[in-house]
């Protein structure tokens, strides 16, 4: 039997309602803040990610799904959403439009890494991108949107906002030299990846998950001590805006994020619901991204949330998102009644009621058992007598009571009954 590829997972109908709750909450939250949906291809030219994500990241070096297409072009399945949105922003001339440009996305993405809880090779993200605003107010708005989204999911009190600034190019150049000076005496005891990172991008060492490297990173210099006056003022303004908005946070100088395009503000929302300080949402500012892609420099800020991780957190809380069950089941006693049941079902669906009817030629008893399994509250029974009179038996499964209702009044009857209860 053909099996699902490693690191992938089926979303089954029984779980669909929870996915839809997260996605619907994402859409509604984004709309409240003026963000509109954008959709980009699931694959792009590999060069886009080499330039955008950065060739010193684990994503580019180890995790991308890259292949040659039939035309001999190097193609990569997207490992994240920001680079594709940046390409679409430039290619479609959106730089010349009204600013700021605000867009959100719900995507699948792909990374070849060791599968674990909440981390799959095919995974899904809700992301938001804001272009054109260099002000710290834009950073604050991105964080406020993220916070609102988590609050609407019921996760706000279970998450911690961790905030840092990684400065601009000049700040990071000074900081990189300080890190090299600090790590050089220990580099022989560190992993092979960190030995390469030391010269290419020593900030990546701070993000290393190797336990042998972590013992050295705890004493490393802090980026906050190397911020220039402008970057420090920007970071102070972001913190002040969050304070004014009532958003709590912890300054964490070890946050660097895993992508090379970030600058200045970086942030993560973490939770203990699915493991020690697991990140469920992260983002920051990336003012240099478009310039790296040979486009007009444009300030930008945004974030992405991992939907699989959010689902694990919601499941840990037994989150109060309920699947909408069928409202009505129409049971036909004979072949003629089943034909009428189908047209009556369409009538009730037109009134907004989720309606099921028999498709399996079951006996009446078996139909009631099936309706009970579906969680239906009302069963409409049709037989020869009901067809002749134009009135059906409407049975309430929870109370085992029944009333006779005219066909044309069934929808209104059920809606009024639900309102009373």
Can you give a write-up of this model?
The chain has 421 residues and is an alpha+beta fold. It folds into two domains: 13-168 and 228-316, Bira Bifunctional Protein, Domain 2 (BirA Bifunctional Protein, domain 2, 2-Layer Sandwich), CATH 3.30.930.10; 328-420, 3-Layer(aba) Sandwich (Rossmann fold). The protein has helices spanning 16-32, 46-52, 58-63, 82-91, 136-153, 169-183, 192-200, 211-217, 229-244, 289-292, 307-316, 335-350, 364-374, 384-389, 410-420, and strands at residues 36-37, 43-45, 66-68, 74-77, 101-110, 122-131, 159-165, 250-251, 263-271, 278-285, 300-306, 328-332, 355-357, 378-382, 391-396, 401-406. Strands 1-5-6-11-10-9-7-8 form an eight-stranded mixed β-sheet. A five-stranded mixed β-sheet has the order 13-12-14-15-16, sandwiched between helices. Strands 2-4-3 form a three-stranded antiparallel β-sheet. α1 (16-32) runs antiparallel to α5 (136-153) and α5 packs parallel to α9 (229-244). The longest helix has 18 residues, at 136-153. The radius of gyration is 28 Å and the shape is elongated. The two termini are 49 Å apart.
Which percent bin holds the helix content? 25-40%
CATH structural class of the largest domain: Alpha Beta
CATH topology call of the largest domain: BirA Bifunctional Protein, domain 2
Enumerate how many helices there are, as a single number. Answer: 15
Describe the main β-sheet briefly: 8 strands, mixed
Rounded to the nearest angstrom, the radius of gyration is 28 Å
What's the CATH architecture of the largest domain?
2-Layer Sandwich
The geometry reads as elongated
Terminal-residue CA separation: 49 Å
Mean pLDDT across the residues is 92
CATH homologous superfamily placement of the largest domain: Bira Bifunctional Protein, Domain 2
**How many β-strand runs?**
16
Name the beta content range: 15-25%
Strand order of the largest sheet: 1-5-6-11-10-9-7-8
Category from helices, strands and their pairing:
alpha+beta
Number of domains: 2
